[in-house]
Amino acid sequence: MQNNSLFSSLIFFVILLIGAALAYTLHISSNGYESYYVFGGAIFIAFVVSAAIKVANQWDRAIVLRLGHFHSLRGPGLFFIIPIIDTIAFWIDIRVLTTAFKAEKTLTKDTVPVDVDAVLFWKVIDPKKAALEVADYVSAIGWASQTALRDVIGKTMLCDMLEGRNKISKELQMIIDERTEPWGINVISVELKDVLIPPALEDAMSMQAQAERERQARVILGDSERQVAEKFGEAAKTYISNPVALHLRAMNMLYEGLKENSTIVIVPSSAIETMQLGGLAGMTALTMGLDQKHPSSAKKSEIENKPREP
């Protein structure tokens, strides 16, 4: 308590200076031994008053014991005690405090070793219980949190731990709060920072996720093929009742194919008869017509089809 020591020291020196001034005045006026008694009494009073004055910060509470028994809870601000008879056993901080705890190599319900790091936010709501009911409440709450975390991990599956951190945090908060309530401590929240699993298992889970995504992609592709087949079926019904539309569609597809690449196009003979192109002569005429529109492509085709000299 830095503020307390500074204020007590200040009071000590003020009383000592006053006593020294009185002793000096008596020594000059009477030139006797009374000045020494006055100075000695000033020193004693300075020690007693400085020991009796205490100052507690806004966030501190003092546990005062009188002859070994609990007397009062003091603070914040300035207060007095009886030296030697009263003692301050503990200074209790009532602010929100944090405690980091972890569980290493703890087996889950499905026997997977994990390392879990967590943070506990807590506050002392009853300083008297925190001082008198437990020897070291800071260490006690740390051990209680660690054992509670191990118990929860042992009852939880790995997948639930990775996906449901909020649920585990709330469960931990309830367990730890129940254990620390007799100590006058309230658990505000518990946060899981990290869950570490073995590297081999991490690789296996990554491969499993990749396989699952590939399966979903194949399912989507199959569904797309089914939808395309249904559309083709609807188009086929339209072409059955309208042969002219089928003929125009076939001509357009052939034209587009020859326009993009006017070299060699393999078309079934049944398709040529259906499109009524007049056999091989009709196909040749169509190709020559496209070559006249694209002379560069025709020249390239002629060079590629020219026989090589021996």
Helices and strands in order, then pairings?
Blueprint: H1 2-30, H2 34-52, E1 53-56, E2 60-66, E3 69-74, E4 77-80, E5 86-93, E6 97-107, E7 113-124, H3 127-132, H4 137-154, H5 158-163, H6 165-180, E8 185-196, H7 199-241, H8 243-260, H9 269-275, H10 279-293, H11 295-305
Would you kindly provide a written description of the structure presented here, covering whatever features stand out?
This protein is an alpha+beta fold and 310 residues long. The protein has 3 domains: 2-92, no CATH class; 97-201, 2-Layer Sandwich (Tetrahydropterin Synthase, Chain A), CATH 3.30.479.30; 242-302, no CATH class. The chain has 11 helices and 8 strands. The strands form 3 sheets. A 3-stranded antiparallel β-sheet has the order 3-2-5. A 3-stranded antiparallel β-sheet has the order 6-7-8. Strand 6 (97-107) and strand 7 form a beta hairpin. Helix 7 crosses helix 8. The longest helix is centred in the last third of the chain and has 43 residues, at 199-241. The relative contact order is 0.06. Mean pLDDT is 79; it is low at 296-310.
